[in-house]
Amino acid sequence: MNGTYGDQLGITRYAFQSNGEVTVEAMGVSQKMSYERDGQSLKVQLPQGNAQLNFTIKEDGSLEGPMGIVLEKVEE
Q1: 3-73 falls under which CATH superfamily?
Q2: CA 62 from chain center: how many Å?
Q3: Model confidence at 12, in pLDDT bands (50, 70, 90)?
Q4: C-alpha span between 45 and 25 (Å, rounded)
Q5: Residue 4, CB-side half-sphere exposure with 13 Å CA sphere
Q6: How many H helices and E strands in the chain?
Q7: Phi and psi for 49 in degrees, rounded to 5?
């Protein structure tokens, strides 16, 4: 994974780096986390213990996550 993905409202952005790090920005707060990709599955490790967010990489390249959230790649 490499690049920045965001929701349609521009509230949340995930900036993925190829080294397994992702910077998540939500409502003005930014936090670095780690992620792991396995095929079409993407897991973002949350800083609170063993919690993680699970995303599915769709055919069009967008990410579908918890509660139906869809993140699309944004131009930087």
Answers
A1: Uncharacterised protein family Atu4866 (2.40.128.290)
A2: 10
A3: very high
A4: 14
A5: 12
A6: 0, 8
A7: 65, -130
Q: What is the pTM of this model?
A: 0.88
The single-letter code of the amino acid at 43 is K
Per-residue confidence band for 67, with pLDDT thresholds at 50, 70 and 90: confident
Tens digit of pLDDT for each residue in 16-63? 999 999 999 998 899 999 999 999 999 999 887 788 999 999 999 999
Question: Which pair of structure tokens corresponds to residue 56?
Answer: 């599915």
User: Residue 2 — left, alpha, or beta (φ > 0 → left; ψ -120 to 50 → alpha)?
Assistant: beta
Q: Which pair of structure tokens corresponds to residue 76?
A: 């930087």
Taking 80 as the threshold, does the pLDDT of residue 76 lie above it?
no
Q: For 11-47, give the DSSP string.
A: SEEEEE-TTSEEEEEETTEEEEEEEEEETTEEEEEPS
